[in-house]
């Protein structure tokens, strides 16, 4: 009879042991699933970081190519300014300086065409609204003929390199007159 009790308790103990082993296995499976999810998440994050680094590097290379000429172009702008001033000071009707003027005009045209080929654009805002991103106001002048904040004069052209400001245009900006203009008496 003692053997029967041992046999009877063994299946119960065995079931209890199997239940414990099942619980341990379930806990182990859950733990492994959590570790797998964490590893997958970490892998996705690292892939995203790598993609961001690649994208930033490509953008940096693109900017380096686009703006590599910035310093060189900046150094050439005074030459363009001098040619333009020289043309302003010479007379088109003076026969003595006619050949020199034509040479300067051709040189300036060649120079500007070359700058344009390398995406260097002049900013000549005469008559346009003042834009503080592209213009530098050197003075303000009262004007009854122009809207307030309109560019009246351009001292020096500005330039953009691939759409980015290289040098602002130096301008005179209009402002409203302090006293209103005298009214015309229509009855007189």
UniProtKB/TrEMBL annotation:
GO terms for biological process: protein folding. Gene3D superfamilies: 3.90.20.20, Head domain of nucleotide exchange factor GrpE (2.30.22.10). The keyword Cell inner membrane does not apply. The keyword Chaperone applies. It comes from the Bacteria. Residues 22-49 form a coiled coil. One of its GO terms (cellular component) is cytosol. CDD domains: GrpE. One of its GO terms (molecular function) is adenyl-nucleotide exchange factor activity. Keywords: Chaperone, Coiled coil, Cytoplasm, Stress response. It is found in: Cytoplasm. Signal peptide: none annotated. Pfam families: GrpE. Participates actively in the response to hyperosmotic and heat shock by preventing the aggregation of stress-denatured proteins, in association with DnaK and GrpE. It is the nucleotide exchange factor for DnaK and may function as a thermosensor. Unfolded proteins bind initially to DnaJ; upon interaction with the DnaJ-bound protein, DnaK hydrolyzes its bound ATP, resulting in the formation of a stable complex. GrpE releases ADP from DnaK; ATP binding to DnaK triggers the release of the substrate protein, thus completing the reaction cycle. Belongs to the GrpE family. Homodimer. This is Protein GrpE. The lineage of its organism: Bacteria, Pseudomonadati, Pseudomonadota, Gammaproteobacteria, Pseudomonadales. The gene is grpE.
């Amino acid at each position: 009879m003692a053997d029967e009790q041992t046999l009877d308790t063994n299946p119960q103990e065995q079931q209890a042991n199997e239940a414990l082993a099942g619980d341990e296995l379930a806990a182990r499976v859950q733990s492994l699933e959590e570790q797998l999810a964490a590893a997958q998440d970490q892998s996705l994050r690292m892939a995203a970081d790598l993609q961001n680094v690649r994208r930033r590097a490509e953008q940096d290379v693109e900017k380096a190519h686009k703006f590599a000429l910035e310093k060189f172009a900046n150094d050439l702008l005074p030459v363009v300014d001098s040619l333009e001033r020289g043309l302003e000071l010479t007379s088109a009707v003076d026969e003595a300086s006619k050949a020199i003027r034509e040479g300067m005009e051709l040189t300036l045209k060649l120079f500007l065409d070359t700058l344009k080929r390398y995406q260097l654009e002049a900013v000549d805002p005469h008559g346009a609204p003042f834009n503080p991103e592209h213009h530098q106001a050197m003075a303000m002048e009262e004007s009854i003929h122009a809207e307030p904040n309109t560019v009246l004069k351009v001292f020096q052209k500005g330039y953009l390199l691939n759409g980015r400001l290289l040098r602002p245009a130096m301008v005179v900006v209009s402002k409203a007159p302090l006293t209103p203009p005298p009214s015309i008496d229509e009855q007189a």
